[in-house]
Write a structure and sequence with these properties.
Helices cover 42% and strands 18% of the residues. By secondary structure, it is an alpha/beta fold. Strands 3-2-1-4-5 form a 5-stranded parallel sheet, with helices on both faces. It binds 4'-phosphopantetheine.
Length: 164
C-alpha cells in the first residue's frame, strides 16, 4: 500500500514544545513525517541550519516514523522529492491565518498534488513561538516546560559563547 508521507516545514530557530507536540500528533496520522528545516531563511537565524537539524534529530530519536531533513528552494519541490502528499502547518491564532492561507494557496498553485493540513496546537502552546522563546531566554525569563531540555542547554551554551 502507498505510504502516506507528510512534510512539516519551518525555520525551527529553535524547536519548541509546540512544534514537538504537533510532530508527535502527526506521527499517528501519517506513515512517515519529515520535519523539514529551511536552510537559508531571510530571518537571520540564531542557530545555523546544521545545528537546528542536529537539535531536532536528537528530539526525534524516539519517534520511529519521523526524521529531519533540511531544504532550500521551493517547499513543494522538496515535498515532491520526499514523495510526500501533504504539508502540515500549525495554526496558533487568527493572526497566523493570512500568511498561512497565502502560503497554502501559492503552494497549491505551484503543485496541485500537494495538500496543506492545518493543525491547532495544544492549548498550552498557543502563544508559543520561536521568536518569543529567544526573547524570553535572552532577557532571563523561565522557559521550563516550553522547550526541550536539550534546546535549553543549547541556548545556554550559545549565551555563554557569545558572552551575552
Ligand atoms: O517557521 P516558518 O518560518 O513560519 O516557516 C516558513 C516556511 C519554511 C514554511 C516557508 O518560508 C517556506 O516554505 N519557504 C520555502 C520557500 C517557498 O516554497 N516559498 C513559496 C511558498 S509562499
Amino acid at each position: 500500500m502507498k505510504q502516506r508521507i507528510a512534510v512539516y516545514p519551518g525555520t525551527f530557530d529553535p524547536l519548541h514544545n509546540g512544534h514537538m507536540n504537533l510532530i508527535e500528533r502527526c506521527t499517528t496520522l501519517f506513515d512517515e513525517v519529515v520535519v523539514a528545516v529551511l536552510r537559508n531563511s531571510a530571518k537571520r537565524p540564531l542557530f545555523a541550519g546544521p545545528e537546528r537539524v542536529e537539535m531536532i534529530g536528537e528530539q526525534l530519536a524516539n519517534l520511529p516514523n519521523c526524521r529531519v531533513e533540511s531544504f532550500s528552494g521551493l517547499l513543494v519541490d522538496f515535498v515532491d522529492q520526499m514523495n510526500a502528499c501533504c504539508v502540515v502547518r500549525g495554526l496558533r491564532a487568527v493572526s497566523d491565518f493570512e500568511y498561512e492561507f497565502q502560503m497554502a494557496l501559492m503552494n497549491k498553485r505551484l503543485n496541485p498534488r500537494v495538500e496543506t493540513l492545518f493543525m491547532a496546537p495544544k492549548e498550552d502552546y498557543t502563544y508559543l513561538s520561536s521568536r518569543t522563546v529567544k526573547e524570553v531566554f535572552f532577557l532571563g525569563g523561565n522557559l521550563e516546560g516550553l522547550v526541550p531540555e536539550r534546546v535549553l542547554a543549547r541556548l545556554q551554551k550559545r549565551k555563554a559563547e557569545d558572552g551575552l
